[in-house]
Design goal:
The chain is α/β, with parallel strands linked by helices and 369 residues long. It is built from eleven helices and 18 strands. The two termini are 36 Å apart. The structure holds pyridoxal-5'-phosphate.
């Protein structure tokens, strides 16, 4: 069945995906924390529902258009992790707020103040403060800086502060298990200590949310954490294999390509940067070489990409690859970063447990506003 799929295509394995979702949600029973997976990885309302059905408390999104899609598809609890400054975007969600819990995020006084201009009458927005735990992207610094913002937000009529959250994306630059443990601890401390500081100053912080795929299982074990937000863990990819977070057999998503040209010193497949992206690794991860590796043969590594070509250059050490594959044969390659590869396709080809292949819409694709 897989062989009949027109290439290039994104293929996912349902059984492995369900296992990964189970692994993700298992921290709920093991550690007593909620799980709010990030939508940006799969961009599919079908998979979002699979995560909710397995026990996720809601979804995390980056963008308002992603939230809108999920609301229309029946998801009832959504964190919008990117701070919103454009009030037109905030107002777009107004019609839904009666039926759906939408949590907005703030990381500055100015942005918090702007948010209340979008309120009608006595309404109020639930907000969480975004903390910088070391990624140095959005977020206020933990401790006194966060407390100052918390005091300000708590004083504003129209904003209801209920939580603090952070994303330790810098975990991707870790080279050792020890470094991963260190980042997870730093991630947790930034939230839990700041939450205590707020509470000692009379500001209750009910939700303390952390998470990245390399850290969420570690972070979930700490006292004081109430929620984790893994994204990539639904699929995994070469980066996660390299970090030791996933085994090869746990990787769900591959890009299926066909060998379209075989020359004496190279193999050329029909998937290039428009199927894999040119990503080498997120947030300083430098662990992988090339742009993707065959699922069943780690020696088959794409060394170059142009838009519609994936090339394996053959040198003396790997010339024998020429004998391993015939023109027209198809190969599943594991991409370096699954989340960005997904955003290049309209649908998944999902290999179901009964052996059939079905198409699943990547309906959040292009929802970037
Ligand atoms: C705010 C936030 N939470 C959670 C995640 C999930 O991270 P990962 O894909 O490493 O699990 C991300 C990823 O970008 C994020 O930005």
């Amino acid at each position: 069945m897989i062989e009949s799929i027109s290439t290039p295509a994104i293929v996912i394995d349902e059984k492995k995906m369900k296992n990964n979702i189970k692994r993700m949600i298992s921290v709920k029973d093991k550690n007593g924390v909620q799980v709010r997976p990030h939508f940006k990885t799969h961009k599919s309302s079908y998979i979002a529902h699979a995560q909710i059905d397995a026990g996720a408390c809601g979804l995390t999104v980056a963008k308002v258009s992603e939230a809108e899609l999920l609301i229309k598809k029946g998801i009832k609890d959504i964190l919008i992790a990117n701070p919103l400054i454009d009030q037109e975007k905030v107002q777009l969600l107004s019609p839904y707020r009666r039926d759906v819990r939408i949590i907005f995020t703030v990381d500055s006084k100015e942005q918090a103040k702007q948010m209340i201009t979008s309120l009608i009458d006595d309404d109020e927005f639930e907000v969480w403060i975004k903390i910088n735990s070391g990624l140095n992207r959005c977020g206020v610094e933990p401790g006194e800086e966060a407390l100052e913002l918390a005091k300000y937000v708590a004083s504003l009529k129209g904003l209801k502060l209920t939580g603090l959250f952070t994303h330790a994306g810098h975990s991707y630059a870790s080279k050792t298990e020890e470094q991963l443990n260190q980042v997870a601890m730093q991630e947790v401390t930034s939230i839990v200590d700041t939450a205590s500081l707020c509470e000692n100053n009379g500001i209750p912080i009910t939700h303390r949310s952390v998470g990245s795929t390399p850290t969420f299982e570690r972070a979930a074990t700490y006292e004081g954490v109430t929620e984790v937000r893994p994204g990539n863990a639904v699929f995994f990819d070469r980066m996660q294999m390299n970090l030791g977070i996933a085994k090869r057999e746990e990787v769900v998503l591959t890009v299926l390509t066909q060998l379209i040209s075989k020359q004496k010193n190279r193999l050329v497949f029909d998937g290039g940067s428009k199927a894999f992206t040119t990503e080498k690794g997120a947030h300083g991860n430098e662990g992988v070489s090339g742009f993707g590796e065959a699922q069943k043969d780690s020696a088959l590594i794409l060394s170059r990409l142009s838009e519609e070509h994936g090339i394996i250059d053959l040198v003396e050490e790997n010339l024998s690859l020429l004998d391993k594959i015939e023109l027209g044969e198809k190969r599943n390659f594991i991409p370096n970063h699954a989340c960005t590869a997904v955003n290049l396709f309209d649908q998944y080809h999902m290999l179901r447990t009964d052996g059939k292949v079905v198409q699943v819409s990547i309906d959040g694709r292009g929802k970037s506003q």
